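Input record (one chain):
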Amino acid sequence: MNSCPSCHQPFTITDFERSLLKKMAFTFGGKVFEIPVPTMCPDCRQKERLVWRNERSLYRRKCDLTGKPIISFYQPDSPYTVYAQDEWWSDRWDALQYGKEFDFNRPFFDQFDELLCKVPHVGMMVAYGENSDFCAYSGYYKNSYLCVSGMKGENLYYTFFCNDCTNCTDCYGCYRCEQSYECLQCVNVYNGVASKNCKNSSDIFFSENCEGCQNVIGCYGLRHQQYQILNKKVSKEEFERVKKEIFSGYQSYQAFLEQSRQFFLQFPHQALQIINTENCTGDYLLNSRNSSQCYFSENLEDCANLWNVPQGSKDSMDSNYAPHTELVYQGVSPVNSYHTISTVFSWDCKESLYAMECFYSDHLFGCMGLKHKSYCILNKQYSKDEYEKLMPKIVEHLRQTDEWGKFFPMKLSPFAYNETIAQDWFPMSKEEAANKGWRWNEYQEPIQKVEKIIPAALLPDDLKKIPDDVLNWAIEGSGELSGPERSRSQSEMRSEGLRGENNEVIFAKESESPIGEVTKRPFKIIPQELEFYRNKNLPIPRKSPPQRHLDRQRRLNPRKLFTRACGKCQKEIQTTFSPERPEIVYCECCYLESVY
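The corresponding structure, as predicted from the sequence alone:
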Protein backbone atom coordinates (compact mmCIF):
# COMPACT_ATOMS: atom_id res chain seq x y z
CA MET A 1 0.00 0.00 0.00
CA ASN A 2 1.33 3.43 -0.99
CA SER A 3 0.39 6.92 0.18
CA CYS A 4 -0.16 9.58 -2.47
CA PRO A 5 2.11 12.59 -1.81
CA SER A 6 -0.49 14.94 -3.32
CA CYS A 7 -3.80 13.92 -1.68
CA HIS A 8 -2.35 11.60 1.02
CA GLN A 9 -4.82 8.85 0.12
CA PRO A 10 -3.67 5.20 0.13
CA PHE A 11 -3.44 3.39 -3.21
CA THR A 12 -1.91 0.23 -4.63
CA ILE A 13 0.04 -0.59 -7.77
CA THR A 14 -1.26 -3.89 -9.11
CA ASP A 15 0.83 -6.68 -10.58
CA PHE A 16 -0.97 -6.06 -13.85
CA GLU A 17 0.16 -2.41 -13.89
CA ARG A 18 3.71 -3.47 -13.10
CA SER A 19 3.63 -5.90 -16.02
CA LEU A 20 2.45 -3.15 -18.37
CA LEU A 21 5.26 -0.85 -17.29
CA LYS A 22 7.75 -3.64 -17.84
CA LYS A 23 6.54 -3.99 -21.43
CA MET A 24 7.11 -0.26 -21.98
CA ALA A 25 10.82 -0.27 -21.09
CA PHE A 26 13.04 1.69 -23.46
CA THR A 27 16.35 0.50 -24.87
CA PHE A 28 19.09 3.03 -25.64
CA GLY A 29 22.59 2.09 -26.68
CA GLY A 30 21.83 -1.56 -25.97
CA LYS A 31 20.83 -0.85 -22.34
CA VAL A 32 17.27 -1.41 -21.08
CA PHE A 33 15.65 1.32 -18.97
CA GLU A 34 12.52 0.21 -17.16
CA ILE A 35 9.76 2.66 -16.25
CA PRO A 36 9.35 3.14 -12.49
CA VAL A 37 5.94 2.61 -10.91
CA PRO A 38 3.83 5.74 -10.26
CA THR A 39 4.18 7.51 -6.93
CA MET A 40 0.79 9.24 -7.04
CA CYS A 41 -2.70 7.73 -6.84
CA PRO A 42 -4.70 7.21 -10.09
CA ASP A 43 -6.93 10.27 -9.48
CA CYS A 44 -4.01 12.63 -8.95
CA ARG A 45 -2.25 11.18 -11.99
CA GLN A 46 -5.43 11.75 -13.95
CA LYS A 47 -5.68 15.32 -12.72
CA GLU A 48 -2.05 15.89 -13.65
CA ARG A 49 -2.84 14.97 -17.26
CA LEU A 50 -6.22 16.67 -17.61
CA VAL A 51 -4.77 20.05 -16.64
CA TRP A 52 -2.98 20.04 -20.01
CA ARG A 53 -6.24 19.94 -21.94
CA ASN A 54 -8.19 23.16 -22.38
CA GLU A 55 -11.26 22.20 -24.37
CA ARG A 56 -13.89 24.87 -23.86
CA SER A 57 -12.14 28.13 -22.97
CA LEU A 58 -11.58 29.82 -26.30
CA TYR A 59 -10.28 33.34 -26.82
CA ARG A 60 -9.97 35.94 -29.55
CA ARG A 61 -6.40 36.96 -30.08
CA LYS A 62 -3.90 37.58 -32.89
CA CYS A 63 -1.62 35.11 -34.62
CA ASP A 64 1.91 35.95 -33.50
CA LEU A 65 3.26 35.24 -36.98
CA THR A 66 0.84 37.22 -39.17
CA GLY A 67 -1.02 39.49 -36.76
CA LYS A 68 -4.34 38.24 -38.10
CA PRO A 69 -7.21 37.65 -35.63
CA ILE A 70 -7.74 34.01 -34.62
CA ILE A 71 -9.67 31.92 -32.10
CA SER A 72 -7.32 30.15 -29.75
CA PHE A 73 -6.95 28.08 -26.59
CA TYR A 74 -4.57 30.76 -25.34
CA GLN A 75 -5.60 34.09 -23.81
CA PRO A 76 -4.50 37.32 -25.53
CA ASP A 77 -2.11 38.04 -22.65
CA SER A 78 -0.68 34.51 -22.58
CA PRO A 79 3.15 34.49 -22.46
CA TYR A 80 3.29 31.77 -25.14
CA THR A 81 3.88 32.30 -28.83
CA VAL A 82 0.73 31.23 -30.69
CA TYR A 83 0.22 30.69 -34.43
CA ALA A 84 -2.94 30.17 -36.43
CA GLN A 85 -3.34 26.52 -37.33
CA ASP A 86 -2.61 26.97 -41.05
CA GLU A 87 0.47 29.06 -40.27
CA TRP A 88 1.67 26.58 -37.65
CA TRP A 89 1.57 23.80 -40.25
CA SER A 90 3.22 25.93 -42.93
CA ASP A 91 6.88 26.00 -43.95
CA ARG A 92 7.29 29.59 -42.80
CA TRP A 93 9.07 28.52 -39.63
CA ASP A 94 11.13 25.61 -38.34
CA ALA A 95 10.90 24.27 -34.80
CA LEU A 96 14.49 23.03 -35.00
CA GLN A 97 15.69 26.64 -34.84
CA TYR A 98 14.80 26.58 -31.13
CA GLY A 99 16.94 23.52 -30.44
CA LYS A 100 19.43 23.54 -27.59
CA GLU A 101 21.92 21.27 -25.84
CA PHE A 102 20.77 19.21 -22.89
CA ASP A 103 22.14 20.75 -19.68
CA PHE A 104 23.20 18.05 -17.23
CA ASN A 105 23.51 20.64 -14.45
CA ARG A 106 19.78 21.42 -14.42
CA PRO A 107 16.51 19.48 -14.00
CA PHE A 108 15.00 18.41 -17.31
CA PHE A 109 11.54 19.85 -16.61
CA ASP A 110 13.01 23.34 -16.19
CA GLN A 111 14.69 23.04 -19.58
CA PHE A 112 11.49 21.78 -21.20
CA ASP A 113 9.52 24.66 -19.69
CA GLU A 114 11.85 27.12 -21.41
CA LEU A 115 11.24 25.35 -24.70
CA LEU A 116 7.46 25.57 -24.24
CA CYS A 117 7.76 29.32 -23.82
CA LYS A 118 9.78 29.79 -27.01
CA VAL A 119 8.45 27.35 -29.61
CA PRO A 120 5.15 28.47 -31.22
CA HIS A 121 2.00 26.66 -30.12
CA VAL A 122 -0.82 25.84 -32.49
CA GLY A 123 -3.75 28.13 -31.71
CA MET A 124 -6.43 25.47 -32.22
CA MET A 125 -6.36 21.72 -32.82
CA VAL A 126 -8.75 20.84 -35.67
CA ALA A 127 -7.87 17.94 -37.98
CA TYR A 128 -9.28 17.64 -41.49
CA GLY A 129 -12.26 19.85 -40.75
CA GLU A 130 -14.51 21.54 -43.29
CA ASN A 131 -16.24 24.71 -42.12
CA SER A 132 -15.59 23.56 -38.55
CA ASP A 133 -12.84 25.89 -37.41
CA PHE A 134 -14.16 26.19 -33.84
CA CYS A 135 -14.30 22.45 -33.11
CA ALA A 136 -11.39 21.85 -30.74
CA TYR A 137 -9.60 18.48 -30.85
CA SER A 138 -11.97 17.19 -33.50
CA GLY A 139 -11.25 15.30 -36.70
CA TYR A 140 -13.17 15.01 -39.95
CA TYR A 141 -16.00 17.32 -38.89
CA LYS A 142 -18.07 19.18 -41.48
CA ASN A 143 -20.28 22.26 -41.00
CA SER A 144 -20.06 22.06 -37.23
CA TYR A 145 -19.62 24.63 -34.47
CA LEU A 146 -18.12 24.53 -30.97
CA CYS A 147 -17.93 20.76 -30.85
CA VAL A 148 -15.15 19.16 -28.83
CA SER A 149 -13.23 15.88 -29.04
CA GLY A 150 -15.10 14.01 -31.73
CA MET A 151 -14.24 12.05 -34.85
CA LYS A 152 -16.36 12.18 -38.01
CA GLY A 153 -19.47 14.31 -37.85
CA GLU A 154 -21.60 16.72 -39.83
CA ASN A 155 -23.92 19.55 -38.80
CA LEU A 156 -23.11 19.25 -35.11
CA TYR A 157 -23.40 22.06 -32.56
CA TYR A 158 -22.13 22.24 -28.97
CA THR A 159 -21.38 18.52 -28.71
CA PHE A 160 -18.68 16.69 -26.77
CA PHE A 161 -16.99 13.41 -27.74
CA CYS A 162 -19.55 12.56 -30.40
CA ASN A 163 -18.37 10.19 -33.12
CA ASP A 164 -19.97 9.38 -36.48
CA CYS A 165 -22.94 11.61 -35.68
CA THR A 166 -24.96 13.95 -37.90
CA ASN A 167 -27.42 16.76 -37.24
CA CYS A 168 -27.10 16.73 -33.46
CA THR A 169 -26.99 19.55 -30.89
CA ASP A 170 -25.92 19.57 -27.23
CA CYS A 171 -25.10 15.86 -27.14
CA TYR A 172 -22.43 14.21 -24.97
CA GLY A 173 -20.57 10.99 -25.69
CA CYS A 174 -22.79 9.69 -28.49
CA TYR A 175 -21.91 7.27 -31.27
CA ARG A 176 -23.67 7.01 -34.63
CA CYS A 177 -26.59 9.22 -33.63
CA GLU A 178 -28.65 11.44 -35.91
CA GLN A 179 -31.17 14.24 -35.48
CA SER A 180 -30.73 14.16 -31.70
CA TYR A 181 -30.72 16.78 -28.95
CA GLU A 182 -29.44 16.76 -25.37
CA CYS A 183 -28.63 13.05 -25.51
CA LEU A 184 -25.96 11.49 -23.31
CA GLN A 185 -24.00 8.33 -24.07
CA CYS A 186 -26.40 7.04 -26.69
CA VAL A 187 -25.55 4.67 -29.55
CA ASN A 188 -27.39 4.33 -32.87
CA VAL A 189 -30.23 6.67 -31.93
CA TYR A 190 -32.31 8.58 -34.47
CA ASN A 191 -34.38 11.54 -33.35
CA GLY A 192 -33.60 11.32 -29.67
CA VAL A 193 -34.32 14.13 -27.22
CA ALA A 194 -33.02 14.45 -23.65
CA SER A 195 -32.27 10.72 -23.44
CA LYS A 196 -29.41 8.84 -21.80
CA ASN A 197 -27.83 5.41 -22.28
CA CYS A 198 -30.21 4.43 -25.09
CA LYS A 199 -29.25 2.19 -28.00
CA ASN A 200 -30.61 1.23 -31.41
CA SER A 201 -33.74 3.33 -31.01
CA SER A 202 -35.66 6.05 -32.82
CA ASP A 203 -38.12 8.77 -31.79
CA ILE A 204 -37.14 8.37 -28.17
CA PHE A 205 -37.73 11.27 -25.79
CA PHE A 206 -36.77 11.89 -22.13
CA SER A 207 -35.84 8.22 -21.68
CA GLU A 208 -32.99 6.21 -20.17
CA ASN A 209 -31.53 2.73 -20.60
CA CYS A 210 -33.87 1.78 -23.44
CA GLU A 211 -32.86 -0.43 -26.35
CA GLY A 212 -34.54 -1.26 -29.64
CA CYS A 213 -37.41 1.11 -28.89
CA GLN A 214 -39.48 3.44 -31.05
CA ASN A 215 -41.87 6.22 -30.09
CA VAL A 216 -41.40 6.26 -26.32
CA ILE A 217 -41.55 9.19 -23.90
CA GLY A 218 -40.21 9.28 -20.36
CA CYS A 219 -39.45 5.55 -20.25
CA TYR A 220 -36.82 3.58 -18.38
CA GLY A 221 -35.30 0.18 -19.07
CA LEU A 222 -37.55 -0.85 -21.96
CA ARG A 223 -36.53 -3.39 -24.58
CA HIS A 224 -38.08 -3.48 -28.07
CA GLN A 225 -41.19 -1.49 -27.19
CA GLN A 226 -43.11 1.26 -28.92
CA TYR A 227 -45.77 3.82 -28.11
CA GLN A 228 -45.15 3.99 -24.40
CA ILE A 229 -45.25 6.94 -22.00
CA LEU A 230 -43.74 6.58 -18.53
CA ASN A 231 -43.52 2.80 -19.16
CA LYS A 232 -47.22 2.48 -19.99
CA LYS A 233 -48.59 1.36 -23.34
CA VAL A 234 -50.69 4.02 -25.09
CA SER A 235 -52.39 4.36 -28.43
CA LYS A 236 -50.66 6.11 -31.30
CA GLU A 237 -53.17 8.95 -31.06
CA GLU A 238 -52.59 9.39 -27.33
CA PHE A 239 -48.84 9.30 -27.86
CA GLU A 240 -48.98 12.06 -30.46
CA ARG A 241 -51.29 14.18 -28.28
CA VAL A 242 -49.00 13.95 -25.26
CA LYS A 243 -45.91 14.57 -27.36
CA LYS A 244 -47.47 17.69 -28.88
CA GLU A 245 -48.35 19.06 -25.45
CA ILE A 246 -44.88 18.38 -23.99
CA PHE A 247 -43.21 20.17 -26.90
CA SER A 248 -45.68 23.08 -26.83
CA GLY A 249 -43.26 25.33 -24.94
CA TYR A 250 -40.22 25.69 -22.73
CA GLN A 251 -42.14 25.34 -19.45
CA SER A 252 -43.90 22.10 -20.42
CA TYR A 253 -40.64 20.68 -21.81
CA GLN A 254 -38.72 21.41 -18.61
CA ALA A 255 -41.49 20.20 -16.33
CA PHE A 256 -41.69 16.82 -18.01
CA LEU A 257 -37.91 16.54 -18.12
CA GLU A 258 -37.73 16.96 -14.36
CA GLN A 259 -40.63 14.62 -13.64
CA SER A 260 -39.22 11.88 -15.85
CA ARG A 261 -35.95 11.94 -13.90
CA GLN A 262 -37.85 11.57 -10.64
CA PHE A 263 -39.86 8.74 -12.21
CA PHE A 264 -36.66 6.84 -13.09
CA LEU A 265 -35.64 6.56 -9.43
CA GLN A 266 -38.17 3.78 -8.83
CA PHE A 267 -36.47 1.47 -11.34
CA PRO A 268 -33.35 -0.64 -10.84
CA HIS A 269 -30.23 0.73 -12.48
CA GLN A 270 -27.53 -1.48 -13.95
CA ALA A 271 -24.35 -1.35 -11.87
CA LEU A 272 -22.09 -0.87 -14.90
CA GLN A 273 -22.43 -0.26 -18.63
CA ILE A 274 -20.04 -2.91 -19.94
CA ILE A 275 -20.82 -4.68 -23.22
CA ASN A 276 -19.01 -7.57 -24.86
CA THR A 277 -16.04 -7.42 -22.53
CA GLU A 278 -13.84 -10.00 -20.85
CA ASN A 279 -12.00 -9.50 -17.56
CA CYS A 280 -12.50 -5.71 -17.46
CA THR A 281 -13.26 -3.17 -14.74
CA GLY A 282 -14.51 0.38 -15.18
CA ASP A 283 -17.65 1.70 -16.86
CA TYR A 284 -18.95 2.37 -20.36
CA LEU A 285 -16.67 -0.18 -21.98
CA LEU A 286 -17.31 -1.91 -25.29
CA ASN A 287 -15.56 -4.82 -27.04
CA SER A 288 -12.62 -4.92 -24.65
CA ARG A 289 -10.59 -7.49 -22.74
CA ASN A 290 -8.13 -7.63 -19.85
CA SER A 291 -8.37 -3.94 -18.98
CA SER A 292 -8.74 -2.37 -15.55
CA GLN A 293 -10.15 0.94 -14.35
CA CYS A 294 -10.96 2.12 -17.87
CA TYR A 295 -13.88 4.39 -18.72
CA PHE A 296 -15.82 5.40 -21.79
CA SER A 297 -13.66 3.46 -24.20
CA GLU A 298 -13.85 0.69 -26.76
CA ASN A 299 -11.65 -2.01 -28.29
CA LEU A 300 -9.12 -2.04 -25.45
CA GLU A 301 -6.77 -4.91 -24.78
CA ASP A 302 -4.46 -5.20 -21.78
CA CYS A 303 -4.85 -1.58 -20.66
CA ALA A 304 -5.15 0.24 -17.33
CA ASN A 305 -6.49 3.64 -16.28
CA LEU A 306 -7.61 4.88 -19.69
CA TRP A 307 -10.33 7.48 -20.28
CA ASN A 308 -12.20 8.40 -23.46
CA VAL A 309 -10.48 6.12 -25.95
CA PRO A 310 -12.41 5.51 -29.17
CA GLN A 311 -11.14 3.08 -31.79
CA GLY A 312 -8.92 1.08 -29.50
CA SER A 313 -5.66 0.82 -27.57
CA LYS A 314 -3.36 -2.03 -26.57
CA ASP A 315 -0.84 -2.49 -23.75
CA SER A 316 -1.31 1.11 -22.58
CA MET A 317 -1.71 2.80 -19.22
CA ASP A 318 -2.63 6.17 -17.72
CA SER A 319 -3.77 7.91 -20.91
CA ASN A 320 -6.66 9.94 -22.26
CA TYR A 321 -8.11 10.43 -25.75
CA ALA A 322 -5.72 7.83 -27.15
CA PRO A 323 -7.22 6.11 -30.24
CA HIS A 324 -5.13 3.65 -32.24
CA THR A 325 -2.32 3.46 -29.70
CA GLU A 326 -0.03 0.76 -28.37
CA LEU A 327 2.51 0.78 -25.54
CA VAL A 328 1.56 4.30 -24.54
CA TYR A 329 2.03 5.57 -21.00
CA GLN A 330 0.93 8.93 -19.60
CA GLY A 331 -0.45 10.25 -22.86
CA VAL A 332 -2.76 13.20 -23.44
CA SER A 333 -4.16 12.75 -26.97
CA PRO A 334 -1.35 10.50 -28.24
CA VAL A 335 -3.31 9.66 -31.41
CA ASN A 336 -1.96 6.84 -33.60
CA SER A 337 1.12 6.52 -31.43
CA TYR A 338 3.38 3.57 -30.62
CA HIS A 339 5.65 3.22 -27.59
CA THR A 340 5.57 6.73 -26.17
CA ILE A 341 5.82 8.11 -22.65
CA SER A 342 4.53 11.46 -21.38
CA THR A 343 3.38 13.07 -24.61
CA VAL A 344 0.80 15.84 -25.06
CA PHE A 345 -1.07 16.28 -28.36
CA SER A 346 1.58 14.38 -30.26
CA TRP A 347 0.04 12.37 -33.08
CA ASP A 348 1.50 9.61 -35.25
CA CYS A 349 4.64 9.40 -33.14
CA LYS A 350 6.65 6.41 -32.02
CA GLU A 351 9.56 5.63 -29.72
CA SER A 352 9.30 9.10 -28.16
CA LEU A 353 9.41 10.58 -24.66
CA TYR A 354 8.29 13.93 -23.24
CA ALA A 355 7.00 15.56 -26.40
CA MET A 356 4.29 18.17 -26.99
CA GLU A 357 2.57 19.06 -30.26
CA CYS A 358 4.83 16.80 -32.31
CA PHE A 359 3.51 15.00 -35.39
CA TYR A 360 4.61 12.18 -37.71
CA SER A 361 7.89 11.82 -35.86
CA ASP A 362 9.92 9.20 -34.05
CA HIS A 363 12.75 8.92 -31.53
CA LEU A 364 12.18 12.24 -29.82
CA PHE A 365 13.03 13.36 -26.32
CA GLY A 366 11.88 16.62 -24.74
CA CYS A 367 10.69 18.13 -28.02
CA MET A 368 8.03 20.71 -28.89
CA GLY A 369 6.37 21.48 -32.22
CA LEU A 370 8.29 19.06 -34.48
CA LYS A 371 6.84 17.61 -37.69
CA HIS A 372 8.32 14.71 -39.67
CA LYS A 373 11.50 14.58 -37.58
CA SER A 374 13.61 11.79 -36.06
CA TYR A 375 16.33 11.54 -33.41
CA CYS A 376 15.88 14.94 -31.77
CA ILE A 377 16.56 16.04 -28.18
CA LEU A 378 15.21 19.40 -26.96
CA ASN A 379 14.49 20.24 -30.63
CA LYS A 380 18.11 19.69 -31.63
CA GLN A 381 18.79 17.27 -34.48
CA TYR A 382 21.17 14.34 -33.88
CA SER A 383 22.28 11.35 -35.88
CA LYS A 384 20.96 7.94 -34.83
CA ASP A 385 24.32 7.01 -33.26
CA GLU A 386 24.58 10.32 -31.41
CA TYR A 387 21.01 9.92 -30.10
CA GLU A 388 21.68 6.37 -28.89
CA LYS A 389 24.84 7.47 -27.08
CA LEU A 390 23.31 10.53 -25.42
CA MET A 391 19.99 9.07 -24.26
CA PRO A 392 21.43 6.68 -21.62
CA LYS A 393 23.20 9.64 -20.00
CA ILE A 394 19.97 11.67 -20.04
CA VAL A 395 17.94 8.87 -18.47
CA GLU A 396 20.54 8.48 -15.73
CA HIS A 397 20.34 12.23 -15.12
CA LEU A 398 16.52 12.04 -14.88
CA ARG A 399 16.86 9.25 -12.36
CA GLN A 400 19.10 11.43 -10.21
CA THR A 401 16.68 14.39 -10.40
CA ASP A 402 13.67 12.10 -9.72
CA GLU A 403 12.09 12.98 -13.07
CA TRP A 404 12.41 9.65 -14.92
CA GLY A 405 8.97 8.19 -15.55
CA LYS A 406 7.15 11.18 -14.05
CA PHE A 407 4.63 13.16 -16.05
CA PHE A 408 5.06 16.89 -16.65
CA PRO A 409 4.44 18.93 -13.47
CA MET A 410 1.13 20.75 -13.48
CA LYS A 411 2.88 24.10 -13.12
CA LEU A 412 4.30 23.64 -16.64
CA SER A 413 0.85 23.51 -18.25
CA PRO A 414 0.11 26.55 -20.44
CA PHE A 415 -3.39 26.69 -18.94
CA ALA A 416 -4.88 27.71 -15.61
CA TYR A 417 -6.56 24.93 -13.64
CA ASN A 418 -10.10 26.23 -14.16
CA GLU A 419 -9.57 26.51 -17.94
CA THR A 420 -9.06 22.77 -18.25
CA ILE A 421 -11.16 19.63 -18.00
CA ALA A 422 -9.46 18.87 -14.71
CA GLN A 423 -12.00 21.32 -13.30
CA ASP A 424 -14.83 19.25 -14.83
CA TRP A 425 -13.88 16.02 -13.08
CA PHE A 426 -11.95 17.31 -10.05
CA PRO A 427 -13.51 20.72 -9.31
CA MET A 428 -11.61 23.14 -7.08
CA SER A 429 -12.16 26.61 -5.76
CA LYS A 430 -9.76 29.42 -6.54
CA GLU A 431 -8.44 29.23 -2.97
CA GLU A 432 -7.85 25.47 -3.14
CA ALA A 433 -5.94 25.82 -6.40
CA ALA A 434 -3.87 28.69 -4.97
CA ASN A 435 -2.95 26.61 -1.93
CA LYS A 436 -1.47 24.01 -4.26
CA GLY A 437 0.37 26.63 -6.28
CA TRP A 438 -1.75 26.22 -9.43
CA ARG A 439 -2.79 29.11 -11.63
CA TRP A 440 -6.36 30.39 -11.86
CA ASN A 441 -7.90 32.18 -14.82
CA GLU A 442 -10.01 35.27 -14.19
CA TYR A 443 -9.89 36.60 -17.75
CA GLN A 444 -13.28 36.97 -19.48
CA GLU A 445 -13.85 37.67 -23.13
CA PRO A 446 -15.43 41.10 -23.73
CA ILE A 447 -19.11 40.82 -24.59
CA GLN A 448 -19.71 41.52 -28.26
CA LYS A 449 -22.00 44.32 -29.31
CA VAL A 450 -25.56 43.22 -29.99
CA GLU A 451 -28.84 44.97 -30.71
CA LYS A 452 -30.07 44.21 -27.20
CA ILE A 453 -29.65 41.89 -24.25
CA ILE A 454 -32.82 40.09 -23.18
CA PRO A 455 -33.20 38.15 -19.90
CA ALA A 456 -33.99 34.49 -20.54
CA ALA A 457 -37.12 34.81 -18.38
CA LEU A 458 -38.61 37.26 -20.90
CA LEU A 459 -38.28 34.96 -23.89
CA PRO A 460 -41.64 33.69 -25.20
CA ASP A 461 -42.50 30.23 -23.93
CA ASP A 462 -43.76 29.16 -27.35
CA LEU A 463 -41.03 28.59 -29.94
CA LYS A 464 -43.33 29.87 -32.67
CA LYS A 465 -43.31 33.28 -31.00
CA ILE A 466 -39.51 33.55 -31.06
CA PRO A 467 -38.72 36.07 -33.83
CA ASP A 468 -35.87 35.84 -36.31
CA ASP A 469 -34.37 38.87 -34.56
CA VAL A 470 -33.28 36.59 -31.70
CA LEU A 471 -30.14 35.98 -33.77
CA ASN A 472 -29.18 39.61 -33.18
CA TRP A 473 -29.78 39.49 -29.44
CA ALA A 474 -27.78 38.26 -26.50
CA ILE A 475 -29.71 36.13 -24.02
CA GLU A 476 -28.95 36.66 -20.37
CA GLY A 477 -29.35 33.58 -18.16
CA SER A 478 -31.85 33.74 -15.32
CA GLY A 479 -29.31 32.99 -12.59
CA GLU A 480 -31.40 30.15 -11.16
CA LEU A 481 -29.78 26.96 -9.89
CA SER A 482 -29.82 23.97 -12.21
CA GLY A 483 -31.85 20.79 -11.89
CA PRO A 484 -29.63 18.72 -9.57
CA GLU A 485 -29.76 21.53 -7.00
CA ARG A 486 -33.48 22.22 -7.38
CA SER A 487 -35.05 18.84 -8.12
CA ARG A 488 -38.62 18.67 -6.89
CA SER A 489 -40.97 15.81 -6.22
CA GLN A 490 -44.27 15.51 -8.07
CA SER A 491 -46.15 16.59 -4.95
CA GLU A 492 -44.33 19.92 -5.05
CA MET A 493 -45.52 20.60 -8.58
CA ARG A 494 -48.77 22.29 -9.44
CA SER A 495 -51.60 19.83 -9.83
CA GLU A 496 -52.78 21.13 -13.20
CA GLY A 497 -51.06 19.74 -16.26
CA LEU A 498 -51.44 17.16 -18.97
CA ARG A 499 -53.59 14.17 -18.06
CA GLY A 500 -53.88 10.80 -19.75
CA GLU A 501 -56.83 8.76 -20.91
CA ASN A 502 -57.66 7.70 -17.34
CA ASN A 503 -57.23 11.23 -15.94
CA GLU A 504 -53.89 10.33 -14.33
CA VAL A 505 -51.26 13.07 -14.27
CA ILE A 506 -48.76 12.40 -17.07
CA PHE A 507 -46.75 15.47 -16.27
CA ALA A 508 -47.32 18.50 -14.12
CA LYS A 509 -46.63 22.08 -15.06
CA GLU A 510 -44.70 24.37 -12.77
CA SER A 511 -45.08 28.08 -12.33
CA GLU A 512 -41.38 28.36 -13.10
CA SER A 513 -38.82 26.12 -14.75
CA PRO A 514 -36.96 23.66 -12.49
CA ILE A 515 -33.83 24.21 -14.51
CA GLY A 516 -32.10 27.56 -14.84
CA GLU A 517 -28.61 28.95 -15.20
CA VAL A 518 -25.96 29.46 -12.56
CA THR A 519 -24.38 32.43 -14.31
CA LYS A 520 -25.95 35.40 -16.09
CA ARG A 521 -23.30 35.80 -18.76
CA PRO A 522 -25.05 36.55 -22.09
CA PHE A 523 -24.89 34.16 -25.01
CA LYS A 524 -26.10 34.12 -28.61
CA ILE A 525 -28.10 31.73 -30.76
CA ILE A 526 -26.49 30.99 -34.13
CA PRO A 527 -28.61 30.63 -37.32
CA GLN A 528 -27.96 26.89 -37.77
CA GLU A 529 -28.93 26.29 -34.16
CA LEU A 530 -32.22 28.19 -34.50
CA GLU A 531 -33.04 26.24 -37.65
CA PHE A 532 -32.39 22.98 -35.76
CA TYR A 533 -34.77 23.96 -32.94
CA ARG A 534 -37.48 25.03 -35.35
CA ASN A 535 -37.23 21.87 -37.46
CA LYS A 536 -37.60 19.73 -34.35
CA ASN A 537 -40.04 22.02 -32.52
CA LEU A 538 -37.67 22.40 -29.58
CA PRO A 539 -37.59 25.37 -27.18
CA ILE A 540 -34.52 27.54 -27.51
CA PRO A 541 -32.22 27.20 -24.49
CA ARG A 542 -32.25 29.63 -21.57
CA LYS A 543 -28.67 28.77 -20.60
CA SER A 544 -25.31 29.41 -22.21
CA PRO A 545 -23.44 26.58 -23.98
CA PRO A 546 -20.84 26.24 -21.18
CA GLN A 547 -23.59 25.95 -18.56
CA ARG A 548 -25.46 23.41 -20.66
CA HIS A 549 -22.26 21.36 -20.90
CA LEU A 550 -21.83 21.60 -17.13
CA ASP A 551 -25.39 20.37 -16.58
CA ARG A 552 -24.71 17.36 -18.78
CA GLN A 553 -21.45 16.73 -16.96
CA ARG A 554 -23.33 16.64 -13.65
CA ARG A 555 -25.58 13.88 -14.95
CA LEU A 556 -22.63 11.54 -15.46
CA ASN A 557 -21.53 9.02 -12.88
CA PRO A 558 -18.05 9.57 -11.43
CA ARG A 559 -15.23 7.60 -12.99
CA LYS A 560 -14.66 5.69 -9.84
CA LEU A 561 -15.86 2.30 -8.57
CA PHE A 562 -17.70 1.91 -5.27
CA THR A 563 -18.60 -1.24 -3.39
CA ARG A 564 -22.26 -1.70 -2.50
CA ALA A 565 -24.86 -4.48 -2.36
CA CYS A 566 -27.09 -5.46 -5.26
CA GLY A 567 -30.56 -4.11 -4.54
CA LYS A 568 -32.13 -7.52 -5.25
CA CYS A 569 -29.81 -10.44 -4.46
CA GLN A 570 -27.66 -8.44 -2.00
CA LYS A 571 -24.38 -9.77 -3.33
CA GLU A 572 -21.42 -7.38 -3.28
CA ILE A 573 -20.98 -5.46 -6.53
CA GLN A 574 -18.73 -2.78 -8.00
CA THR A 575 -20.53 0.22 -9.45
CA THR A 576 -20.10 3.90 -10.27
CA PHE A 577 -23.21 4.64 -8.18
CA SER A 578 -21.93 5.59 -4.74
CA PRO A 579 -23.73 3.98 -1.76
CA GLU A 580 -25.18 7.35 -0.72
CA ARG A 581 -27.06 7.85 -3.99
CA PRO A 582 -30.84 7.23 -4.14
CA GLU A 583 -30.84 4.96 -7.19
CA ILE A 584 -31.67 1.27 -6.83
CA VAL A 585 -28.67 -0.61 -8.29
CA TYR A 586 -28.71 -4.22 -9.48
CA CYS A 587 -25.92 -6.56 -10.50
CA GLU A 588 -25.86 -7.52 -14.17
CA CYS A 589 -27.79 -10.78 -13.73
CA CYS A 590 -30.57 -9.23 -11.66
CA TYR A 591 -30.82 -6.24 -13.96
CA LEU A 592 -31.17 -8.36 -17.08
CA GLU A 593 -33.86 -10.43 -15.37
CA SER A 594 -35.76 -7.23 -14.62
CA VAL A 595 -35.82 -5.94 -18.20
CA TYR A 596 -36.30 -9.17 -20.20
